[in-house]
Specification:
With 364 residues, this protein is mainly beta. The relative contact order is 0.12. The chain has one helix spanning 24-43; strands at 46-51, 58-63, 70-71, 78-84, 90-95, 102-107, 114-115, 122-128, 134-140, 145-151, 158-161, 164-169, 175-180, 187-192, 199-200, 208-213, 219-224, 231-236, 243-244, 251-257, 263-269, 282-288, 295-296, 303-309, 315-321, 331-336, 343-344, 349-350, 353-354, 357-362. It is built from one helix and 30 strands. The strands form eight sheets. The protein has a four-stranded antiparallel β-sheet, with no helix packed on it. Strands 4-5-6-7 form a four-stranded antiparallel β-sheet, with no helix packed on it.
């Protein structure tokens, strides 16, 4: 099934003038200082996530080194999604304090929060435009959803596609990929960012979903049920050259490109229905963009999912649930991109117990 809330219901500092340093010892010291600065910046990288202390669903942020845990919303009934603007200065998210899921935008320090929508129904599937000026989303009921675009200040809302959901901007901002069942099956389409020239890219009897653009905008990776099991597929941006990258008995979904476009990360649900979130074994797998050299990064009997690449591609944040009993909770964890160096991040606490923490999103 599609990865959706609802669809049809290196720092360059400290390099200084290394090239001008002639002594080998001085050059080594300069290189070490550069690496130290890079590591310091990486540890200070921010990760936004969802947590539910005391039953309140809210948005939090923590540094990658586990420090500076901060609560950004209180009592907003935030839906488990957070989306940093491309410049990292703002966060867009969904919340339902009044019953309907609406779009909010605030500064990264939680100031200047503004609700962009209200009264039209439920909103889902947020996607920032690459220039940070607009947000695409789907709305508004279970029988028919459309894709619209709104300016980041809440003005100029316009519908771009009917009977559609899960919008995804191309890296250059010229195109939007999306899902639709307008032709009978859940298929992937693409359109110009203004809604014109809507074209169907996939044609299969099984569901095609979760289309993600490669960093260079030339390819789309997605998962498909066309062969009776969810697998990862790849195609050119015009829909040509579709080919299967995974072949397993598991349900492979939620593909994510590495920042340099050389690898693809995905979640492999091994023993249970993927819709039973946090139940059964789920693994995080990485492979080369051509489908070769697959590597299971987690290799455990636990549920591990929601993987997110760090901006430099060196680390992966994810959610893990180790206890499947009634008191088991989701926690956030980090690992290196090869699966090494795994560690759990500090949890939001309530009444002396960890709350659920999920859905990590790295600041750019």
């Amino acid at each position: 099934m599609a990865d959706k809330q609802s669809f049809f219901c290196s720092s360059r500092s400290s390099l200084f003038s290394c090239a001008a340093v002639l002594a080998a010892g001085a050059l080594a010291a300069c290189t070490a200082a550069s690496e130290s600065a890079r590591q310091s910046a990486a540890n200070g990288a921010r990760i936004a996530f969802h947590s539910d202390p005391g039953g309140q669903d809210d948005l939090f942020v923590i540094n990658a080194n586990g420090r500076k845990l901060r609560r950004l919303t209180t009592g907003l009934e935030q839906i488990a999604t957070a989306l940093w603007s491309p410049d990292g200065r703002r966060i867009a998210f969904l919340a339902r304090p009044t019953g309907h899921a609406d779009i909010y935008v605030m500064d990264a320090d939680a100031s200047r929060r503004k609700r962009l929508t209200g009264g039209q129904g439920d909103h889902y599937d947020l996607a920032w435009s690459p220039d940070g000026d607009q947000l695409a989303f789907s709305c508004c009921n279970e029988t028919e959803q459309d894709i619209s675009v709104v300016a980041a200040d809440g003005t100029d809302r316009e519908r771009r596609a009917r009977n559609a959901g899960l919008p995804s901007w191309s890296p250059d901002g010229q195109l939007i990929a999306f899902l639709s069942i307008r032709d009978g099956d859940v298929e992937i389409y693409v359109m110009q960012a203004d809604g014109s020239d809507q074209r169907r890219l996939t044609r299969s009897r099984g569901e095609d979903a979760n289309a993600a653009w490669s960093p260079d905008g030339r390819r789309l990776v997605f998962n498909s049920h066309r062969d009776g099991n969810d697998e990862i597929y790849l195609m050119q941006a015009d829909g040509s050259g579709q080919r299967r990258l995974t072949t397993s008995k598991a349900s492979d979904q939620q593909p994510r490109w590495s920042p340099d476009g050389t690898q693809i990360l995905f979640t492999s649900f091994r023993k249970r229905d993927p819709l039973l979130r946090g139940v059964g074994n789920a693994e995080i797998v990485v492979m080369h963009a051509d489908g070769s050299r697959k590597m299971n990064l987690t290799r455990s009997r636990f549920w591990e999912g929601d993987p997110a690449w760090s901006p430099d591609g060196r680390r992966i944040a994810f959610a893990v649930r180790r206890d499947f009993g009634p008191r088991g909770t989701f926690q956030l964890a980090l690992m290196n991109s090869d699966g090494s160096g795994r560690r759990t991040l500090p949890s939001v606490q309530y009444a002396g117990r960890p709350a659920n923490n999920c859905c990590p999103a790295w600041a750019p």
